[in-house]
Amino acid sequence: MLLKDKVVVITGASRGIGRAAALECAKQGADVVIAHSGRPTGNDAAQSLIIEIQAIGRRAIDVGADSASLDTGELIIHEAVKAFDKIDVFVNNAGICPFHSFLDMSKDLYMQTVNTNLNGAYFAVQAAANQMKKQGNGGSIIAVSSISALVGGGMQTHYTPTKAGLLSLMQSCAVALGEYGIRCNAVLPGTIATDINKEDLADKEKFNYMSSRTCLGRLGVPEDIAGPIVFLASDMASYVTGASLLVDGGLFVNLQ
Ligand code: NAP
Asked: Name one GO biological process term (predicted).
């Protein structure tokens, strides 16, 4: 019960990493706000997650809104406080990674990626921080960045800058918000098998190659990221701020 009676808000919680994190937070005693895109698949997935969370005795609501909008963060925090009176943890996780080559990158795809992953996130973090400051009890903000914040990818030139941006945002926000007891940290997943890379990893050769690149000999699953998120959210991490936690099965260090 590391998060007993805390209110945790997670964006992109209908599927993948966010969903696993939402479920683990509930198991650890938290009430959860499940934010998603509002598209039909997100709505259905969020409803089934609410039922799972209620079955373990915790409360959950969902909010569907496009993370690319600069107003979405305020909306999510407003709905969270309306439902649960406070927020203790904000996890900025929503993101897209539409693999595409650099030389013919369209302005539309670039802007969609940067808006969805980073620009909306900036103001979502701001909205969460203002609410936590108002409450006066500190809080924990976590950005789901990526190993891609540290290394490049030829098909990810629009994506990697957003992940480096989120890491940098957490470092600067740790400085800006320390005086309010608000901790800000980044989680950097390696390759985790989810819908985001389903097409890419459908190529068996690529799947086997990526698995063999890790020290542990396997790709990650969403649950592998849930524990580190719970840790950073919890009071176990009360002196951890401005940090980044690489959770990649040893992919980064495995040069040869
Ligand atoms: P996923 O399974 O595709 O889930 C993406 C989540 O983000 C869904 O809940 C989706 O909601 C939401 N989302 C997508 N576009 C949105 C939008 N415009 N507005 C609001 N919500 C939106 O992806 P994932 O692998 O769990 O990725 C989660 C985060 O982890 C991303 O930020 C990603 O960059 C990061 N990450 C993933 C990996 C990996 O290997 N999987 C590695 C490093 C970092 P809907 O259901 O409504 O579409």
From this structure: fatty acid biosynthetic process
* Cα of 256 from ligand 1 centre, angstroms: 30
In degrees to the nearest 10, what's the CA dihedral of 121, 127, 130, 134?
Answer: -140
Asked if residue 2 is part of any domain, the answer here is no
Active site residue 239: no
Ligand 1 center from residue 107 Cα (angstroms): 21
Atom of ligand 1 nearest to the CA of 39: 47
pTM above 0.85, yes or no: yes
Q: What is the separation of C-alpha 68 from the centre of its chain, rounded to a whole number of angstroms?
A: 14
159 given a catalytic annotation = yes
Establish whether residue 66 lines the binding site of ligand 1, counting it when its CB lies within 6 angstroms of any ligand atom. Answer: yes
Give the residue-averaged pLDDT of 90-111.
Answer: 98
Tell me whether residue 143 is in a domain: yes
256 belongs to a structural domain: no
Domain that holds residue 102: 7-247
**Whether the predicted pLDDT of 103 surpasses 90:** yes
